[in-house]
Amino acid sequence: xxxxxxxxxxxxxxxxxxxxxxxxxxxxxxxxxxxxxxxxxxxxxxxxxxxxxxxxxxxxxxxxxxxxxxxxxxxxxxxxxxxxxxxxxxxxxxxxxxxxxxxxxxxxxxxxxxxxxxxxxxxxxxxxxxxxxxxxxxxxxxxxxxxx
Length: 148
Known about the structure:
about 150 residues, Immunoglobulin-like, 2 helices, 2 domains, alpha+beta, four-stranded mixed beta sheet, single chain, 8 strands
């Protein structure tokens, strides 16, 4: 993983832009306006961390059953997909706001080829999917002593 040389300034402009763009996109292609196919996709929030020995990927997926999730590692990428079933609207209710997202989702996270794909571990608990992806021994940082 690469780190940025730009100092942190307390805001995430790209994240803010992405949220605004997603909101605009969702409003433009909402089911009310006939955009059924595009409005059925959503992108769950993900965190990716790296330590000396592994990558750790965490996704918030509340309301999804473990058998509705699919996790694969191929060509240096972690593929996470699934589907959140749409709840049926109840008659006699007036909806003032609908923000929960339903439908299919897919996240593809590039980790590289320096991982041990046979030892990837995925655990789902309390709506959070946590995936541990160990690095190969050759990919781990080795400290070299500098002699004088």
